[in-house]
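Notes to self after the call with IL:
- keep both proteins in one doc
- input above output, always
- annotate only the second one for now

Protein 1:
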Amino acid sequence: MAGHRDFAEFYAAAFHPLATQLFLHTGSAAEAQDVVQEAMCRAYDRWSSVAEHDDPVAWVRRVAWNLATSRWRRVRRGIELITRDRLVESTPGPNPDRIAIATALATLPARQRQAVILHYLEDLPIAEIAALTGAAEGTVKSWLHRARHTLASRLSEALPAAEEEEVDRV
C-alpha cells in the first residue's frame, strides 16, 4: 500500500508541471494531458524501478515528450482539425502578452521550442536538456541562442512601440 501512496504523491506533484510543458509544446491541453497521463500509467506499471531513479520526474518527462513527438508525427494535422472544431472556451482567454509568446514559440523549430520550454519555464539545466533530447550540450546552447534571437525579433514585432523600449531595456 505504501508504494501506491508514494506514487499518488508523485503523481499529484508532477502531473501539472509536466502537462504545462507539453501544452506549450503541442498547443493542445487535451493532447498534453493525454501524453502525460500515458507516461504516468507507464511509470505506475514500473513504479518499483522508476521510484529508484535519482529523478523519477525526469523519466516520466522523457516518456511524455517521446509520446508527444510520436503522436505529433503520426496525426499532427488530424489533431489540429479536431481541436479547432471542438475547443470550447470555458475560462477567460489569455492576455495579449501570453498570446504573443505562445504565437512566437509556435514559430520555432520543435527542438528550439523544446529547449526554451525546458530551460526557461522548467528551469532545467542545459546538461539535463541534452540528456533528455540526446543532443550535445553545445547543440542545446545553440538551440537556445537561436531561439532567443528569433523570439526577440518576433516579440518586438508583436509589441506596441511603447513596450518595445521596455523590452530593449530588459
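Protein 2 (the one to annotate):
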Amino acid sequence: MRPSGRELNEMRAVSIETGFTKHAEGSCLIKIGDTHVLCTATIEDRVPPFIKGTGLGWVTAEYGMLPRATNTRMRREASSGKQGGRTVEIQRLIGRALRAGVDRVALGERQITVDCDVLQADGGTRCASITGGWVALRLAVNKLMKAGDVHIDPLMDPVSAVSCGIYAGQPVLDLDYPEDSEAGVDGNFIMTGSGKLIEVQMSAEGSLFSRDQMNQLMDLAAKGTTELAEMQKAACT
C-alpha cells in the first residue's frame, strides 16, 4: 500500500492554471499533488554569444525553491552569493529537456528563458518544472506566432517528465516525498507526447534493480507522460 493510498500506476492529482502572472509572455502554476511550481517564459530578442549570427534560437531555464517550500526553512541562495550544485544541475536538465522539443531554426534568433520557482515541494519538483515549463513555453510561442514573428511552429511535440521508482518492492508511478525518501530505486523520465525518450535518470538508492524492473518503470513513465501531455495540450487551448 502506498502512503497516499494510490494505485501503483496512479498519478497524483494534476492541475495547470495558465496565465498565472500578468507580465510574462507565458506562465502557469502547475500542481502535482502537493508539489506546486510557478513557471514563466520570457522572450528576448537576443541569443547567447556562442550562437549569435547562426539564425538559431535558444531555450534556457532557471530553477529555484522558496525558503519555505519545504518543512524547514532553506537559506536563499542569493544570500550565499552562488547557486548550489543541485540547483545548477536541475536547471540545466530543464533547459536541455525543453530544447529537445524545439525546432531552433523555426524559432529564429531569439531566446526564451523559462523560470521555474518551487512554491511548495513534495517530491518531483524537477519533473513538475519540466512539465509546467513546456506549458509556459507553448504560451509564449503562441504569442510569437499570433504576432507574425514566427511563421512555422517551433514546438515539435509536448515535453513532460515524471518520476518512477521501486517502493516497498513494487514499481510505482509519480513518487511523492514519503516514497521518494524511502525508495530503493528512483528514476526521472523525460519524454515527448509521441512517446520518445529525451532523458532518463535512474539510480539504485539502497537496492539493485533488474532489467525487467527497469522496463516496468519505463512502461509506468510512458503512461504518466502520456497523461501529462494530454493535460498540457488541454491547458494551452
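Annotation: The first helix runs from residue 77 to 80. The chain has a mean pLDDT of 96.
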